[in-house]
Structure formats: C-alpha cells, structure tokens
Amino acid sequence: MAFSYMPGFGNDFETETLPGSLPQGRNSPQRPAYGLYAEQLSGSPFTAPRGTNERSWLYRIRPSVKHTGRFKPAHYPLWKSAPNVGDHELALGQYRWNPVPMPKEPTDFIAGMRSITTAGDVLGQTGMAAHVYVANRSMVDDHFFNADGELLIVPQVGALRFVTEMGVIELRPGEIAVLPRGLVFKVELVDAEVRGYVCENYGAKLTLPDRGPIGANCLANPRDFKTPCAWFEEKETPCRLTVKWCGNFHVTEIGHSPLDVVAWHGNYAPYKYDLATFSPVGALLFDHPDPSIFTVLTAPSGEEGTANIDFVIFPPRWLVAEDTFRPPWYHRNIMSEFMGLIHGQYDAKEEGFVPGGISLHNLMLAHGPDAPGFEKASRADLKPVKLDNTMAFMFETRFPQMLTRYGAELETRQDNYIDCWADLKKRFNGTPEGDWS
Ligand SMILES: [Fe+2]
Fold it and tell me: What are the record keywords, sorted (predicted)?
C-alpha cells in the first residue's frame, strides 16, 4: 500500500479520506459528516503569537476521551528523562561507543528505547534526551503517545512505518521524521530488525533555522518536508495505549484502535524529510564555517541564538578551501554534542566511529580530529575533493548531557577513545616552519 504526503513545512494542511468528511468553512459543525466527532489538538497555548501558534482539528470515529480508560503504571526502565543524574560511577570524559546491540528477545519500538543522555528538565519543558532504539517486532494493538516532548527519529538500520492518528509515515535510513508531542502512533517494522537514534525534545518545537545572509534558498528547503495525508482504521479489538508523562509511563486498555481520524486540518502534524535534499553551503575559498551552517532543524530556547536543540548533519559535499585545515577544527564548546553516524565515514575520524556508533563531547570538553586524521589533513594536496558516501549528524544542546547508567555501562563503549589523540605530536620547535619531520 502506498501512502501519500503533502509538501511544505508548517503549512496549514487539510486532508480527508472520505469525500466530504472534512467540514468546510467552520471547525465544529453541530453534526459533522459521517457522525464523526470534532476535536482540537493544541500544540501551543491558545494565545501564542501567530508565527508559533499550532493546532489541528481532527474528525474522528470516537473522541480521544474514549481512547483512554483507567491508567495503570507501566515500566520502561531504559527510557530515562531529565534530570537523571548520578546513577553511575563513570567519571567525566569524552566518550564513544560502537553500535547498541540488537535485542535477542522480541522487542518493539517503545520497549527498545535506550536512553544514552538526558539534559535539562522534563518538568520545566527545557532540554532533551538522546536515545537509541532497537526493535525486531511491530506494534500491533499497542499504541503510544509522549506528553513529554516531540520525537525526532533518525533511522540507521532498517525501514519502519509510523502509523499515526494523522496519517502514515514510511521511513528508511537517510530520512528523518518528527512526531509532535501528544500524537498517538504505533510503529510497524518493514525490515526484520531496525535501529536508529531519537532526540526527545522537551522544549519548544523544532523549526527551520533563519538563513540570514544566505537568503531565501539552500539548507533545508520547506517544500522537501512531507506531512502524511489522513489515514484511519476501524478496528474493534482489544488495544492498549501507553503514555509517557513527566518521565513516567502509564498504560490503559481500550476496545478499539485509537487511529480513527477520518479527516483533519491544521498546522500541528507529523512530518518527514529526506536528508539527501539538504543543500549544503560552505567555504568557497578558505577556512571552515561553524557546523551551524549544516543545521537542518533548530528548537529555540527563548534566548536568541541559543538553541535548546540544533539538529545538524554532515552530508556529502565538496571540499575546495585553499590553505586550510579542512576537517572540523579542534574545539571546546559551551553547547554539548551528541553525534551519530548513519552511514559511511566522518571526516574528523579515520577509524573507530562506525555507522550506528555514538560519540559524546560534553560541555567544555575538548575534541577534534584524531591523530591519523590530523596528519592526513595537514599534508593533503588541497585539490577539490568530494566527500561522498557519508552522513553523520549531531544533536547539540545548550545543556550539559548527563550520561545514563545504560550508556555508562554499555559493553560497546570504547574504553580507549581518548587514545585517538595520544599520537598528536608537538610540532613547535621555535622555528616558523615548525617540526614536520
Ligand atoms: Fe564540536
């Protein structure tokens, strides 16, 4: 079955599955067509300024009050929320991991969520968490929504299908999806095993960064974002709905599928984006812009230019700068940097950072090219070079990222990561040329 999408970022969309199921000219008619219930989903306060005011009107078989009963506690001990501090003994450091292992037991997308870092405070609606998901089983009659934040999903292995109350998003590695706070969904696996990264954004919604002097084009262009058309199922079987709410989980049992929205309109909706459509802008003559030039989406913090989260990618691109050390420079940062690699090789590391892996360079901790990478880039013939077959990304936040016990004790953590800089030699010998022997 092919699912269809509507192009644009933050548009006021409208979509219906049955002719005439979407009311025209009003939001809440006395009797909506087909006996549907009209319901508003508010993603911003009613009174938010127009530019950030987000809501959608959903026309559904049953209203959402029928999609919850009495709640019982549920437990997902590896999905942590901020603040989550001091639950392990690992000392401060720059850290790197090989991929999180695939599960041996049957595991769905929610049970397969493993938190690596948390930052900020879920109750204060600031900060984020960085997770890895691993799964080998579809959700069939299980559904989920997250009241704590929106979910940015970055697949690394395997295709999956997000069956949401507002439509279906099919997603494969190389694409990303954003599911807004509160949206009900289940996750079906297209491939037998899947793995990927998730940024859970507790704060203001992700949006497109301003381009400044770049102008009206390049980076992520709005038309390349795709929001699903309405889709529903009429399924009268025992179902469960699990909710993540202020860091805890609760489950309720209902007698039908909550994915029953026949038509909807509005600007609060899930979307996906193909990272291959990102048009990178960079140095044309010399030097190296800050990696913010590769920001796909940014979540503002309320303080200008200081993001709660920046989602940054390192896509295929030409390197042409003259008399320039071309890889990312050595760096200490007030922002903290969680990196992943979707495929290929990252240009600051010759080895050790593999697809599915993670690196964490936290608040003010030094990082940069490894010793072989520095040697190679310092002696390279600076012809134009195409950096190809690569897609790394970064979840960057203004808050320090606190490592979870799961991340600290994960067997794939590389105990020798710090050694990648051990062979950087002293080149200073008092002469202008330095010692390059
Ligand atoms: Fe950095």
Answer: Dioxygenase, Iron, Metal-binding, Oxidoreductase, Phenylalanine catabolism, Tyrosine catabolism
| Helix (H) or strand (E) run with residue 227 in it | strand 225-228
Report pLDDT digits (tens) over 13-26: 999 999 999 999 99
**Mean pLDDT value across the chain:** 97
Please report which confidence band the pLDDT of residue 1 belongs to, taking 50, 70 and 90 as the band edges: low
**Hey, which residues are catalytic here?**
288
**Taking the alpha carbons of 314, 118, 162, 76 in that order, is the dihedral positive or negative?**
positive
How far is ligand 1, taken at its centre, from the CA of residue 336, in Å? 8
Strands 194-201 and 167-171: unpaired
- Say which residue the tokens 């507002």 belong to: 166
d(CA 220, CA 211): 10
pLDDT in tens, 355-387: 999 999 999 999 999 999 999 999 999 999 999
Q: What percent of the chain has pLDDT over 90?
A: 97
β-strand 239-245 against 142-146: which pairing, if any? parallel
CB-proximal residues (5 Å) to ion ligand 1:
331, 337
C-alpha to C-alpha distance for 67 and 61, rounded to whole angstroms: 11
| pLDDT value, residue 330 | 96
The pLDDT score that the predictor gives to residue 2 is 72
The Cα 324–Cα 381 span in angstroms is 11
What's residue 349's pLDDT? 80
Q: How many angstroms separate the alpha carbon of residue 39 from the centre of ligand 1? A: 44
Burial class (CB in 10 A: 0-12, 13-18, 19+), 343: middle
Task: Give pTM, 2 decimals.
Answer: 0.97
Distance 434 CA to ligand 1 centre (A): 26
**137, 158, 187, 188 from 192: Cα distances, Å:** 8, 8, 13, 10
Residue with tokens 């990222």: 401
What distance in angstroms lies between residue 311's CA and the mean position of ligand 1's atoms?
13
How much is the pLDDT for 85? 95
Which residues lie across from 165 on neighbouring strands? none
pLDDT at position 412 is: 98
How many Å apart are CA 181 and CA 131, to the nearest integer?
16
367 is in an annotated binding site: yes
Q: How far is the CA of 291 from the centre of ligand 1 (A)?
A: 8
The residues, any chain, with a CB within 8 Å of residue 25's CB and separated by 6 or more, are none
Question: What's phi and psi for 425, nearest 5 deg?
Answer: -90, 155
Residues 42 and 268: their CA atoms lie apart, in Å, by 8
